[in-house]
Amino acid sequence: MLFQVRIHGRGGQGVVSAAEMLSVAAFLEGKHAQAFPSFGSERMGAPVMAFCRIDDKEIRLREPVMRPDALIIQDPTLLHQVDLFSGVSPDGYILINSTRSFDELGIGEFVKGYRAEHLCTVPATELALKHVGRPLPNVALLGGFAAISDRIKIDSVCAAIRDKFPTKIADGNIAAAREAYQLVLEQMKEASHA
To answer: pLDDT by residue (tens digit) across 37-89?
Structure first.
């Protein structure tokens, strides 16, 4: 079944790389996948979007993802600037790079109709700083995505990371992704017991 992901962030945060690594992870699991950016202003710090589609059969669609099954938001400063949530159904997954809750981010009311176990924040920038020494949240968020969506295995995400980066950089990114994966699993467990 087709699963569509839309990733929002800012130029220089690795939004396009995240979509590419997600598609590689899916491919490593024998699935069909495609990743592509939404070309707009390509300057550093400008809002950027990238898309990833995953399916068990060949994907013929080529247009941007208008109805995502999952949203990955790499930069929470975009929450109140861009219509990030357009097209996401109440069954969709929303993963935000933040140390704050949905209520603290000012979107608690908005997500009330969504399934609590599909909503998660993960301190991806902090994890990247801790493990890689740079504030790039993209890879940690892929670990979180593996946990929240259960569409891709964390080991496939790690293999895609290893495929993308030299060993030293890959090791730190893998550690960040695995820690994010665990944090999201814990949050989901709490949400399902709430």
So the answer is: 886 656 677 888 999 999 999 999 888 899 999 999 999 999 987 688 999 99
Which residues lie closer than 8 Å to 161 by C-beta, 6 or more apart?
21, 139, 142, 170, 173, 174, 177
Sign of CA pseudo-dihedral 183, 99, 188, 35: negative
- Tell me the helices (H) and strands (E) count for the chain, helix number first: 5, 6
Q: What is the pLDDT of residues 81-124, one digit of tens each?
A: 768 899 999 999 999 999 999 999 999 988 998 998 899 999 99
Three-state DSSP at 46 gives coil
Q: Which domains does the chain have, with CATH numbers?
A: 3-193 (3.40.920.10)
Residues paired with residue 71 on neighbouring β-strands, in sequence order: 6, 94
The edge-to-edge listing of strands for the beta sheet with 119-122 is 32-38, 47-55, 3-10, 70-73, 93-97, 119-122
Distance between CA atoms of residues 20 and 37, nearest Å: 9
